[in-house]
Write a structure and sequence with these properties.
The complex is a heterodimer of chains A (367) and B (93). By secondary structure, chain A is an alpha+beta fold. Chain A has twelve helices and eleven strands. In chain A, the strands form three sheets. In chain A, strands 1, 2, 3, 5, 6 and 9 form a six-stranded mixed β-sheet that branches. A three-stranded antiparallel β-sheet of chain A has the order 4-8-7, with no helix packed on it. Chain A has a two-stranded antiparallel ribbon with strand order 10-11. The two termini of chain A are 22 Å apart. Classes of the chains: A alpha+beta (367), B mainly alpha (93).
Chain lengths: 367, 93
């Protein structure tokens, strides 16, 4: 059963207000391909305490789990906000789940105080299996020399450190790299212009063995990433639908508003149904995330991601089409949502990928 | 399809069906083909026009460009109305 606590409801209200004020569509547009992050806004996010939500109590956080972050990411998705929040929250989650006590004590307080961190999990081949890793770490008298390249490292230029996946002695591990040690951090041209994405070379980087996280729960990290992307997609869906409905009720053709035609009315209704379904999937997955049975959690998260991103990409595609000749232009906001939807769809696995992985989870006997 | 359309026995049900549906089929197929091309690229589907992108970002750009044909010259929705009314003889909307 979906649980939605009073705290989550309050957080959603606060987050929606904040994001609505911070990120009107003109601001979103002014910040496309922005070179720098909005530091003032980041400071406000820090002051709201949103970086402490899923940090463990032992590191000065609230220990409320990633599920409590969901309403915030959903709100940011709704207003197409570009902040290093998801990057940082995912790094916090990864550190909390995989870092030793000493590692958590050293690194987590920096983030609670306003630091930024990110993940470096994807590589040049674009594969979605996070344990399929080319990057290597070579142990040499207490030090580890790294080699390899990571792609789609969001907000790498402003991060204090990143958590990268590498193979060390054949085993997939997370390593913590201070970004000051990186020699190559190059901006990537990506479809979602609200995103700041970077390619990072690990060549020539040396770390201490204490920077290898003691745990290596890649499943949990993958699912955390999926939950955040689902939240963003589920947040974007109602926004793009509002945009569509407003246009269908305004634009006239052959003497009638175009929304009166079933060819447009029915897909709009489909988008509404899928948007509501995405929200239900999201909060079901969030409910199971910090308490549920491992298998049920994985199934819920993969279903949610598959459903939400497929729906968001469809809605973005239809939004462009239904705006007609105007939809095809850069001035129309529909493309902003379509671009965002494609990012959500193709990062960490699209709907086809997750449905394939769902098959054994749902159809094989529990075991 | 052009050749088939000239054989009376193959088009006797709705003689104007193939010429009237060419634009709809072609433009929608192109849009869906571009979507499929993105789906083959894994994470790299989110790249846009740049050296790192598959085929330099041709497919991403082509997908966005595909709407010019599904919108221009009568949207796909209008095309379906035309086919429904003029080819099948259904009542007007």
């Amino acid at each position: 059963m979906i649980q939605f606590s009073d705290e989550q409801a309050m957080l959603l209200d606060t987050a929606l207000d904040f994001c609505r004020n911070q990120s009107p569509i003109d601001t979103v547009r002014n910040r496309l391909d922005a070179e720098h992050i909005d530091r003032e806004q980041w400071q406000q996010i820090v002051e709201l305490g949103w970086l402490g939500i899923n940090a463990p109590v032992t590191s000065g956080g609230l220990g409320m789990g990633l599920s409590s972050v969901v309403p915030i990411v959903e709100s940011m998705g709704r207003y197409l906000m570009g902040t290093p929040y998801s990057s940082t929250v995912l790094a916090i989650e990864t550190l909390a789940a995989n870092g030793s006590e000493a590692q958590q004590a050293e690194w987590l307080p920096r983030l609670a105080a306003g630091g930024i961190a990110t993940m470096a999990l994807t590589e040049a081949d674009g594969g979605w299996n996070l344990k399929d890793i080319e990057a290597r770490g070579f142990v040499d008298s207490g030090r580890i020399r790294l080699e390899g390249k990571k792609t789609f490292v969001t907000d790498a230029d402003v991060a204090d450190f990143l958590l990268a996946s590498v193979l060390i002695d054949g085993a997939a591990r997370f390593v913590l790299i201070e970004t000051g040690a990186l020699q190559v951090v190059e901006r990537e041209t990506v479809i979602d212009q609200t995103r700041r994405s970077f390619q990072v070379s690990l060549d020539g980087v040396e770390i201490d063995s204490g920077q290898v996280l003691s745990g290596a729960d890649f499943e949990r990290v993958e699912q955390s990433a999926l939950l955040l992307l689902t939240a963003e997609a589920a947040g974007g869906l109602p926004s793009v639908l509002h945009l569509v409905v407003e246009y269908l009720n305004t634009r006239k053709a052959f003497g009638r508003t175009i929304g009166s035609y079933q060819a447009l009315k029915h897909p709009a209704a489909d988008i509404l149904l899928s948007s509501e379904a995405a929200r239900s999937h999201l909060y079901h997955a969030a409910t199971l995330f910090d308490n549920g049975d491992v298998r049920a959690r994985e199934a819920a998260v993969r279903m949610a991601k598959a459903q939400a991103v497929e729906a968001f990409a469809y809605a973005g595609d239809r939004a462009v089409q239904f705006h007609g000749g105007f939809g095809f232009t850069f001035e129309c906001d529909a493309q902003l949502y379509l671009r965002r939807a494609l990012w959500c769809q193709y990062q960490f696995g699209d709907e086809r990928y997750h449905r394939q992985l769902l098959q054994p989870l749902l159809l094989d006997a529990a075991g | 399809m052009a050749k088939r359309a000239t054989v009376p026995a193959l088009v006797s049900d709705w003689p104007t069906a193939t010429p009237m549906s060419g634009k709809l089929r072609g433009s929608e197929l192109n849009r869906r083909m571009c979507q499929f091309a993105l789906a083959l690229q894994g994470s790299n589907a989110v790249r846009f026009v740049s050296d790192e992108a598959v085929d330099g970002g041709l497919w991403q750009r082509s997908y966005f460009n595909a709407f010019s044909a599904t919108i221009g010259g009568g949207t796909s929705q209008i095309q379906k109305n035309i086919i429904g009314e003029r080819v099948l003889g259904l009542d007007k909307d």
